[in-house]
Amino acid sequence: MTFLHLFIVNKSGGLIHHRPLSKHAPHIGTNDWLRIGSTFHSLHAIAAEASPVKSKHKNDGIEFIEAEGLILCCFQTRTGIKFVITAEPGTRNLQKVLREIYVSYADCTLKDPFYELEMPIRCELFTQAVDDIMRQYG
Amino acid sequence: NNRTRRRKQTKNQPYSIDNNKDLLLTFIAFKMSRQTAMPTSILDRPLTRGRTEQVSLSAFGLMYSELVQYHQNRVSSIPELERRLESSGYGVGFKVLELLAFRGREAKRETRIMSILQFISVTAWKSLFGKGADSLERSLDNADEYMIFDNNPITSTFLSSHKSSADAYISGIIAGILEGAGFTARVQAVCPSADEGDARGIIGLPRRKDKAVFVVKFADKVLERDAALG
Q1: CB within 8 A of B173, min separation 6: which ones?
Q2: Cβ separation of B206 and A132 shorter than 8 Å?
Q3: Looking at the partner chain, which of A113, A125, A132 has a beta carbon nearest the beta carbon of B65?
Q4: What pLDDT, in 10s, does the model give residues B193-211?
Q5: Crossing angle (nearest 10°) for helices B168-180 and B78-104
Q6: Helix count (H) and strand count (E) of chain B?
Q7: Which of A103, A108, A128 sits opposite B158 (nearest CB)?
Q8: Nearest Cα to B90, choosing from B191, B153, B164, B180?
Q9: CA proximity to A59, closest of A77, A39, A37
């Protein structure tokens, strides 16, 4: 019941962060990551349009994918950033972990004056914060 | 024309104290507050602390981040950014010295190097950052250098790179206090890695792996004067 991967997509669909969350996570190459990021972004947008029920939240789109081999949870912020986490089936607290990662993002990257918005995240403080969250929940 | 002349004067000095252009704005705010019953302007509040006011660390972090970005868009190198941040802190240092001297109701001003450094590392630090500096030491290598240690200065709490550059603001504050008290000095911030014992963590953030040291280098005439005082 472990977490596998975390990736963050900015509001134009570019991948700004990706990392494995445990040793079991399969290795994914950089090109594959970029493809995953943009594909997910497009699917998210299409799902928001195609949904038969218009959600009252502005952030409509894919929230949860449950497959045989993995579960995927997505959290979209009001600014259009999507935090996506994948895990083995049966893992709990996905939503909670995503919220905490969002809080760490706000603390460690958004308050760093040398971080440019929508650019790839290179903040060591953010990496350490996600490590701490994984140590707590993983 | 008057305004451009003033701006040219301040550009050539290494440090510049901001002219209070916001005096006009506070006057307008004061007039508006009289008409619409808004809270009184900051210039009308008493100088003595009624109750200790606190500012959230996040609010300071976001505002300071904007200050750094403002300067970074106007410079072309890191040392220039550090100089600008030091200038910003310099003015704060002067005003903090006056305010703390008034609030502390000191009968005498500090004339010795050790006492003004104690004032900075204990009183000024507590007033600005909520706690005293972690230690104050005299350098063993150079007789004119003293070091103020802080395990987690708020200017670099949220940063992952260029921490000593962001701490230049606090260097400027220290330099401003010293200059205002009559001790000319240059202050430099460095960022060595922290030892295991320096546990200075903020809840919610990962433990900081380095600390900040503010190296204060006094001018020769200050050292001579201090030696002559006995």
Answers
A1: B89, B90, B92, B93, B96, B124, B128
A2: yes
A3: A113
A4: 877 666 567 777 888 888 9
A5: 50
A6: 9, 4
A7: A108
A8: B180
A9: A77
Q: How confident is the prediction for chain B on average, in pLDDT?
A: 83
What one-letter code names the amino acid at B193?
S
Task: Give me the residues of chain A with pLDDT under 70, please.
Answer: none
A122 touches B at CB < 8 Å: yes
Interface list for A 22-81 with B (CB within 8 A): none
Residue B106 pLDDT greater than 50, yes or no: yes
Taking the C-alpha atoms of residue B187 and residue B123, their distance in angstroms, rounded to an integer, is 18
Interface probe with B: pick from A111, A119, A130, A134, most Cβ of B within 10 Å: A111
Angle at A108 between CA A104 and CA A109, to 5 degrees: 110
Alpha-helix residue ranges (DSSP H) falling in B77-219: 78-104, 113-118, 125-129, 163-166, 168-180
Task: Give the whole-angstrom CA distance, residue A136 versus residue B8.
Answer: 56
Per-residue pLDDT tens digits for B47-85: 777 666 788 999 999 999 999 999 999 999 999 999 999
For B159, which of A114, A122, A129 is closest by C-beta distance?
A114
Closest alpha carbon to A32 in A22, A20, A24: A20
pLDDT at B27: 63
ipTM of the shown complex = 0.86
CB atoms within 10 A of CB B35: 7
pLDDT at site B14: 46
Chain B: residue nearest A110 by CA?
Answer: B62
